Amino acid sequence: MQQRFRFSALTLAALGVLSAPALVFYPVQAQTPPVDLAQRSPVVAAPAQATYAPGDAITVEFAGLPGNAQDWITVVEATAPDDTYGEWFYTDGQRSGSHSFSGLPAGIYEVRVYFNWPDGGYVVQERDRLVIE
Q1: In the chain, which ranges are E strands?
Q2: Cα–chain-centroid distance for residue 58?
Q3: What is the SS3 assignment for 84?
Q4: What is the mean pLDDT of residues 5-32?
């Protein structure tokens, strides 16, 4: 009858079979605290005016952003898919402020806010209409 023995890594290291004990690491998921939505300010990004003339610079005011360096805002045609962008800018961690975009031809557009590129992907966090006529 054959006998079987089970040795731990520490035992094998003590016997000189292993040069050092083998360590096994298990991934640990970081726990993020729940967000209290009542305390979170809403995201706002809107043109300073409801309508602009073709070619006029467009000022967009924003507030309530999380403050990531790569939160970004763009102005695109309203019918464009969410993964479409026109002229855009990173907020560089600013939670509120304003930015001027170049003028556009007549049409219906949207101001769109995205968080934390590239991790946030093309998930629109806020949008507001803009008419150029």
Answers
A1: 44-47, 51-52, 58-63, 72-77, 88-90, 97-101, 107-114, 124-132
A2: 24
A3: coil
A4: 49
